[in-house]
Amino acid sequence: MISEIIDFIKTMNENNFCIEYKINKFNNSNKINCKKEEMIGYFEYENNNFISFYKIPKDYSQHILVLDELIKKHLNEALISNEDLNKLSEITNSISPKVNIEETVQLIMKKLCKILDFNGAFFLLKSKENYLSLKHFIGIKPTNKNVKISIDNSVSGLALKKKTIISLNNPKKHPLFAHGVLKNKINNIIYFPIFEENGDMYGVISIINKKSENISIKDMFLSIMLNEIIASIMEVSLRENKLKFMLLGTLKALLKAQNSRIKKSPEEHLRIKEYVLKMADKLNLNSSDKWILELSSYIYDIGMIGLPNALFTNSNKLSTEEYETVKKHVEFGYQLAEKMQSLPNKLKKIILYHHERWNGSGYPNGLKEDKIPLLAQIIGICDTYVAMTENRAYRKKYSKQDALKKLKENSGILFNPILVDTLSEVIS
């Protein structure tokens, strides 16, 4: 059996692997040309036997399982099971790309810890200055949240440069390993490099301290497979995140154009954005709806651009005829939004329906109660509160207490009672 293992390793090393081993009295430490600082995997078996990996061809990673099986048979250790392989589908089914990139990263960290049975994880983000900084962590105690880690002189950086996972038991044996980030004692660690769609480095997710035992070659194989799944998830999520910021830039430009006409202060927009996002948190809305609320806070009144200038220079209260003209801004805004294909449909409906009211007295369609989209209701009540607490040419602003009193008087009439209570909590 031992000769079969040695021959198999020799064949692998002749085919672009780089593997060092010590099995019983046999080893090849003096026969391989591998640099210790380029180690990507270190695994210990019973009686101080070990395997170290320095290079694993991407298309032949399954060979490490075959090697692991041969060694475990020789040493009478447990082999990989179907249950282990089924773990791959768990992360595929439980993680979908989120618009919020930070939520995606944190969810991946939690799932990796659960699937591979690790105690904690942390994420290092690559900076423009070409170092790694701590961005997120779970189940660990950072020594310094402002730590800066060199890409050129760290195992995390090596994972990025080699574009491969690195799996280490007893990581102190790696020349590039340094505690840097954690107070925790690190018994073992797996590094998962993350890249942007164009191949640029993005960061590294690391999971530490397997709960039950040392990291096995089986864990390394699963990690290689998991890393390919994570790469696909992150690629989509990062792309969505870039589109989000491009869209935000466009909407901010539209907001400036809108405010220059209707003389609305930037502070009003910021207050509305703050209130809608706090309400979204209290209502446990998902990240996609929060994103749409944030976007809509910039342009829900964009239709005002289509109204006559005279309406914005008039210091008197609007006449009935002028008010009917103003009401058309929701339809102007919707028509403008329809021409912007990148805008989500939910956002377009907020523009159209944010003046609908609970009892059906709003416009443009006189929708009632739950027929009004929830996100449009949230924008509508926040817009009303902020408008009441700002000075207008024809009236002085309401105090916070008087504005909330007015909303409560119209709870169940003009506004959803749940949203009145939620906004009251946010304001208070």
Account of the protein in words:
Pfam families: GAF_2 (PF13185), HD_5 (PF13487). Residues 243-428 form the HD-GYP domain. The protein has 3 domains: 2-75, no CATH class; 82-238, Beta-Lactamase; 263-427, Hypothetical protein af1432, CATH 1.10.3210.10. With 428 residues, the chain is α+β, with helices and mostly antiparallel strands. Helix 3 (82-94) packs antiparallel against helix 4. Helix content is 48%, strand content 14%. The protein is elongated, with a radius of gyration of 29 Å. A 10-stranded mixed beta sheet has the order 2-1-4-3-8-9-10-5-6-7, with helices on both faces. The protein starts with a helix and ends with a helix. The chain has helices spanning 2-13, 63-75, 82-94, 101-116, 155-162, 217-262, 266-282, 287-299, 310-313, 320-326, 329-338, 345-353, 374-388, 400-409, 417-427; strands spanning 18-23, 26-27, 41-44, 50-55, 118-126, 131-138, 148-150, 166-169, 188-195, 201-210. A hairpin with a 5-residue loop joins strand 9 (188-195) and strand 10. The mean pLDDT is 83.
List keywords for this structure.
ten-stranded mixed β-sheet, 10 strands, 428 residues, 48% helix, Hypothetical protein af1432, Beta-Lactamase, alpha+beta, single chain
